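Recall the central idea of this unit: under ordinary conditions, the amino acid sequence of a chain determines the structure it adopts. In this exercise we apply that idea directly, starting from the sequence alone.
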Amino acid sequence: MLSTIADITLIATPIVIALGFYFAYGQWASIRKARMAEIVISLTTSWDSAIMAESRQAISSKGKNLKKNYEEADNTNAAEAFGSLTRVGDFFDALGVLVSEGFLECKIAYDLFGEAEKYYHGLYEPLIKSTDYKDYVPYFSRLHELFEKEKACRSKVKKKRAY
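Accordingly, the structure predicted from this sequence is:
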């Protein structure tokens, strides 16, 4: 009788442990999805805020002269060097951290901000590439690379579907 109980315990123990891991993984995946949803809501709220809209408008109005305007503001310690001209770059830098460190899936970030990132990266690029500001927003540059890879992957998938 005792050996039968020992045999059952020997068989049941790994099954119970495996079930425990399975349910723990399910809980972890649910928590991760919920956290990602919170991040998305926070990002979109920030992007749509009045202060960010003001910054996006300021940067768009500077257009190709953004680098020159930023350098002038930086040299004179003007408020826009610390606010309206940097806020969008800082946003994409923070988004780059979230994506490159795995807190937010690249495909989700690309769906939400891919076109905007492409546009603003084009405006910020001369500033980002200048030696004086090369370390200004390193994750913005990394995000741009990740988005380019995401775009390339999507275009490959579309080509395969065409056949």
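Residues 2-48 form the longest helix (47 residues).
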